[in-house]
Amino acid sequence: MSEQAPIERQEYNITVYTENQIGLLNRIAMIFSRRKMNIESLNTSPSEIEGIHRFNIVVHETEEVVSKIARQIEKQVEVLKVYYNTNEDVIWQEMALYKVPTDIVAEKAKVERLLRENGARVVVIRKDYTVFETTGHREETDNLIKILQPFGLIEFVRSARIAIIKDSDGFNRKLREFERAEPGHEVMENEFLNSREKVFSM
Amino acid sequence: MLTQEKQAPALPETDTMLSGSQALLHGFVVEGVDTIFGYPGGAIMPIYDALYDFEGDLKHILVRHEQGGIHAGQGYARSSGKVGVVFATSGPGATNLVTGLADALIDSTPLVCITGQVFAHLLGTDAFQEADVIGITTPVTKWNYQVTDATEIPEVLAKAFHIARSGRPGPVLIDITKNAQLQKFAFKGYTPCDHIRSYRPKPIVRKEYIRQAAELINKAKKPFVLWGQGVMLGSAEQEFRAFLEKTGIPAAWTIMGAGALPTDHPQNVGMLGMHGNYGPNVMTNECDVLIAIGMRFDDRVTGRLDKYAKQAQVIHLDIDPAEIDKNVKTTVPVWGDCKETLPLLTQMVETKQHTEWLAKFREFEQKEIDAVIREELFPTSDEMTMGEVIQQLNELTKGDAIIVTDVGQHQMVACRYAKLNQTRSNITSGGLGTMGFALPAAIGAKFGAPDRTVVAVIGDGGVQMTIQELGTIMQSGIDVKILILNNQFLGMVRQWQELFHERRYSFVDITSPDYVTVAKGYGIPGRSINQRENLVEALQKMLTNPGSFLLEVMVTKENNVFPMVPQGCSVSEIRLK
Ligand SMILES: Cc1ncc(C[n+]2csc(CCOP(=O)(O)OP(=O)(O)O)c2C)c(N)n1
Ligand SMILES: [Mg+2]
């Protein structure tokens, strides 16, 4: 968590640990749509713990708004814990697939070199088309679209972002605490409240 | 009642074969439910069929519209402190609950609503009376869940009650497909729920913040307490009073908090917000420490936020962490149930009196009496005012009645002037402002507090929104006093048109039926008066009549509610006229 709340909007990665419950995705999405907030990217996946789901949500917002949203999400009954982090605080990746005509790729060695230079891998080669894949940050996957466009890019798709929090030690220990009727202090820790010490003065 | 009480079947032994419907109703009995407000229909018929055998334990009140049912459930919950229970059928039955769910969510009212749903194999086929009830109700429930298999019912119901009543209470909805209601399974008993791992209703109390709050309070020269419904929801009225009396701090209430401290208490300085009292609004911008207890800084309370209490250090006690800093930045956040945090705070604060500071509030009160209150309560004009009706009502009830209000001018007048001696005596739609709330909510309130007098104060507009619930009164024989303050206008909207839209009275002129005749049709005695000399006697008749009574009072047509903080203005810009 950054020290002072920046006023500017920037990308925040919201990580949500939840129970596996039908309808929860809707409940969480509504928290954003109700406030007319755009979700830049949303991914749901299993987490390090069996039965616990993990949402990765990306929004472009101020920290103040994100912290309020995080608490609204955490308030939902089936949500275990919410974290939010700037891009510096996470390792993140997105994956993209590109379909191009095989004859052009085969004819023009230049294309193959471009792909190699952009870290793209071949997933499928057929007579009529070839599918490449890249994984990386948005600028990288975007860049390849521009490069491939003149060679007849047939289809493009990019996945939602997935992100790992750099200084998280996972959710296992926390979950054990949650399972107790009276969780300890640590698990209830709240970044926002802890930063109060600095704000408060007598 | 003289009816023979039928005994509900005792809780069956483990592995008894029960239908989902029977399991559900046994669950209600274990949870201590005594009253259900509902309306049957195709998709909930198996539950109603099972209900037939539970007459002794579960009293079912047949309402006239599902909105009436859920508002009755809310009134019941608010007067009794228990969870309100509501039944509705699928499709239109369920969609008729939406207004009440939104109202209950924003006003933190614990409800468990059961809706029938089409057979599981028909879900998503646009079957007869199928609606996506989970989808529709997600943003207006604290939690909702669809059951398609009867074996889930005991656990889901137990979760529902736990979620509805714990932490910051709220409405919960369980949608049960018809096959699950019918399905027989080996019942394993019913165990109430007290822990869900992903749900922490009470944040852990952090002592260091209590200490910091106490230090701030001890140093404060002009501390000011604002309290809301949280004090009642936490059953912390005693703890709150002890805190106030030790610190000597003046305290003002939001309309949802009215009655948690008696109106007459010397430190009760009145109501906050748009139509609140003069002193509390002005002093919000003069105090040095603002202590908010179980309230959420609604915009009707704060007025313009960037000019709200900027000079003050703010201490916010709330059970819902999402409320801290949501609207007003706090200096010290005191998370937790105020039943626990207030006594801790009381221990650490010094015994004080703020005589001079309190006297300032009384000075403002005097100004308000001279400018507004005297004429409202003791008018010199010929026509009756809403305020004088409430004033006379106070004289007769001595402040012991439950006042249920609808929405509009009469609501503001009733909340401002009703004398309340006890907690849980003011039931109003605060957050959503739902017209049509009062009549059904009053019915529910009486079921929830049968020993108390319940007076519904309703406008001529709002009463026509749920007037069909007179049928519920007729059939159930419940005793509700219905006081219609008829100004022949959608008064509150008319007031805004007068003040902010150059008196362009666009569609606020509303006609009324002959209410006394309508009531008579429902077997309810009534009277309409338009002369002051009849007021006391008519109110007396209403209150002493054995059973429900409808009294219509014709009041002056174009009165405005003052003081007023106009929208977009700061609380200190409150207008006396
Ligand atoms: C369901 C609903 N529709 C519309 C409104 C908007 N509204 C607020 S107050 C009011 C006028 C209420 O008129 P009446 O019941 O006669 O009460 P009065 O203000 O005259 O005392 C209206 C229309 C509302 N609050 N609720
Ligand atoms: Mg009116």
Describe this structure in words.
The complex is a heterodimer of chains A (202) and B (577). Chain A is α+β, with helices and mostly antiparallel strands and 202 residues long. Chain A has 2 domains: 10-90 and 162-199, Alpha-Beta Plaits (2-Layer Sandwich), CATH 3.30.70.260; 92-158, 2-Layer Sandwich (Alpha-Beta Plaits). Chain A is built from 8 helices and 9 strands. Chain A has helices at 24-33, 63-74, 102-107, 109-117, 138-148, 172-179, 191-194, 196-199, and strands spanning 10-19, 41-46, 52-61, 79-86, 90-101, 121-125, 129-136, 155-158, 162-165. In chain A, strands 5, 6, 7, 8 and 9 form a 5-stranded antiparallel β-sheet that branches. Chain A has a 4-stranded antiparallel β-sheet with strand order 2-3-1-4, covered by helices on one side. The longest helix of chain A has 12 residues, at 63-74. The two termini of chain A are 25 Å apart. The model of chain A is unreliable at 190-202 (pLDDT under 50). The model of chain B has no long low-confidence stretch (mean pLDDT 97). Chain B folds into 3 domains: 16-187, Thiamin diphosphate (ThDP)-binding fold, Pyr/PP domains (Rossmann fold), CATH 3.40.50.970; 207-361, TPP-binding domain (Rossmann fold, 3-Layer(aba) Sandwich), CATH 3.40.50.1220; 382-554, Thiamin diphosphate (ThDP)-binding fold, Pyr/PP domains (Rossmann fold, 3-Layer(aba) Sandwich). Chain B contains 22 helices and 20 strands. Chain B has 577 residues and is of the alpha/beta class. In chain B, the strands form 4 sheets. Chain B has a 6-stranded parallel β-sheet with strand order 3-2-4-5-7-6, with helices on both faces. In chain B, helix 22 (535-544) links the parallel strand 19 and strand 20. The N and C termini of chain B lie far apart (51 Å). Residues 406-410, 433-436, 459-462, 487, 489-493 of chain B line the site of thiamine diphosphate. The site of magnesium ion has 8 residues of chain B, from loops.
